[in-house]
Write a structure and sequence with these properties.
mainly alpha, 75% helix
Length: 163
């Protein structure tokens, strides 16, 4: 298990507030709603709404994945010069960019494949952050991250299965 680096002491880590929980779960509305609408709209005579919802879900997933990468950057921006040279900070910066680039590639793919990639990326972000968050002193946020990741990635996978 990673021990927090000096600039990110664990005593400053608090569990997500009620507002954070509400906003986090509200962020699932496009995932769950998009997957539900895709299942309801599949096979309709006019596929314009279907194509719109598929495209919107894929783009929203990419935005969320980029947001996760941006969170890594935000957490390390205030690192001391000593901490900035650490492997943990370098990992957070590199993975933050990698998340966005991979999500962009997935948006450019056909939707049935791109949504599977998005679901996999959401899981990969969580797995990566399981190593990074404790070292950055925000381990209490991993429970929320797990729940959000599970529902968001499942929504992507279920939507892709219906396309």
């Amino acid at each position: 298990m990673n021990t927090p680096i000096e600039s990110f002491p664990p005593e400053h880590a608090t569990a997500p507030s009620d507002l954070v929980l509400k906003l986090g779960y509200a962020g699932l509305i496009p995932f769950v709603g998009g997957a539900l609408f895709i299942w309801l709209l599949a096979g309709q005579a006019d596929n314009t709404p279907f194509v719109f919802v598929v495209d919107a879900l894929s783009k929203y997933a990419a935005v969320v994945i980029s947001f996760l990468g941006g969170m890594n950057w935000g957490m390390v921006m205030r690192a001391s010069p000593e901490a900035a040279a650490s492997h943990t900070v370098h990992r957070a910066l590199w993975t933050g960019i990698a998340y966005s680039l991979a999500a962009w590639v997935a948006v450019c793919m056909p939707a049935h494949a791109g949504l599977v990639v998005h679901g996999g990326l959401l899981i990969a972000c969580y797995i990566s952050d399981r190593k990074t968050y404790p070292a950055l002193g925000v381990a209490p946020w991993l429970t929320l991250r797990f729940r959000l990741t599970t529902l968001a990635s499942l929504s992507c996978f279920l939507a892709a299965a219906q396309i």
